Amino acid sequence: AAAHAENRWHGTGTTADGHAVKLLANVGSATDAAKALEAGAQGSGLFRTEFCFLDATTEPSEAQQRESYAAVLRPFAGKPVVVRTLDAGADKPLPFLDISAEPNPALGVRGLRVAFDRPELLDRQLAAIVAAAGDTGAEVSVMAPMVATPAEAAWFAERARAAGADRVGVMVETPAAALCAEQLLAEVDFASIGTNDLAQYTCAADRMTGALAALNDPWQPALLRLIALLGEASGTLGKPVGVCGEAAADPLLAGVLVGLGVSSLSMTSAALPAVGAALAEHSLADWQRAAQQAVTAPGAAQARDRARAALDG
Ligand code: PEP
Ligand code: MG
C-alpha cells in the first residue's frame, strides 16, 4: 500500500485539498544535492555547512569556502536553499575551531554562540555564502543554529544583511526561542525548527543517550506545543516557519506539523516520497484536527495514536 501511495507523489507537496507545503531535502555535500533533486526535492531547507570542513585543520579561506558552498548550491540553480552557518562546538568538534572541552557540551558554546567572541569568522562565512549564491543562481537564504533569544536573532540578522544576504532566518532549537516565537520571528524573514535539538532541550534528555530515546521522541506533546507557538507566530506575522529536524521525515508527524502551521518540511531525501504521499491523503482541516489531538495527549505514544485515530475516524 505504501509503495502504491508513493507512486501518487509527483514532486510538489500538497494536502488533499490543495494546501501547498514545500518539500525540501537536508544536504551537506554535492552528492547529497544530486540525490535530493533525483528524489524530487523542491530545494533544500538545510545545508549543513560544517560538513564541508570536517577535515580542515585551519580555517578555510573565504575563496575556498565560496568554492565548497558553490559545489553544493550549483545543482539547485533556480531553487531555494537554506544555508546554515557553522554549527560546531564541543558537541560537534571541528579541528580548526579549537573549542575547549566543556562539562556539558550540549549546553555549551555551540552553534551561533561560537561566533559571539569571533564575529569575523561568521562574517567571512557569510561573505563566502553570498558570493557562492551569486556564482550558482541558487535562491539562497542563510540561517543561524542554536539561537536562544530575539536579541541574538537581531545580532545575526544585522550581520547577514550587512553581508548582502537576501533572506535571513534562524533555527528554533531551544525552548527559549520557541517561547518568544513572535519577537524572534519579527527580527528575521523566516524560522526553521530543528526538532532534533529542540526535543533534547525540551525534555532535558541528551540526544546522544540511547536510553533516553523515548524522551527525544518528536511526538512528545510538549515539543508539539512549542512548534504550535511558532505556527501561530507565523500566521500572525505572515512569515514562513519550517521544520528541518528528523520529525519532518515521519509521514504521519509531517502532516501534524503542517496542521500546527508549518509551511515547509526539510528531511533526508529518502523520506520525501512517503511524506509527500501521506500529506496528500488528508485535508488541511484533517491534519489540524489530528494536531489538536496530539498536543493534548499525555505522552508521545498516545499523541501518535490519537493523531492516527483522528484521521481514521
Ligand atoms: C536539529 O537540531 O533538528 C537540526 C536539524 O540540526 P542538527 O541535527 O544538525 O543538530
Ligand atoms: Mg541542531
TrEMBL record:
Belongs to the PEP-utilizing enzyme family. It comes from Saccharopolyspora mangrovi. The keyword Amino-acid biosynthesis does not apply. It is found in: Cytoplasm. It catalyses: L-histidyl-[protein] + phosphoenolpyruvate = N(pros)-phospho-L-histidyl-[protein] + pyruvate. It comes from the Bacteria. General (non sugar-specific) component of the phosphoenolpyruvate-dependent sugar phosphotransferase system (sugar PTS). This major carbohydrate active-transport system catalyzes the phosphorylation of incoming sugar substrates concomitantly with their translocation across the cell membrane. Enzyme I transfers the phosphoryl group from phosphoenolpyruvate (PEP) to the phosphoryl carrier protein (HPr). Its cofactor is Mg(2+). Keywords: Cytoplasm, Kinase, Magnesium, Metal-binding, Phosphotransferase system, Sugar transport, Transferase, Transport. This is Phosphoenolpyruvate-protein phosphotransferase. The keyword Manganese does not apply. Its EC number is 2.7.3.9. Residues 14-281 form the PEP-utilising enzyme C-terminal domain.
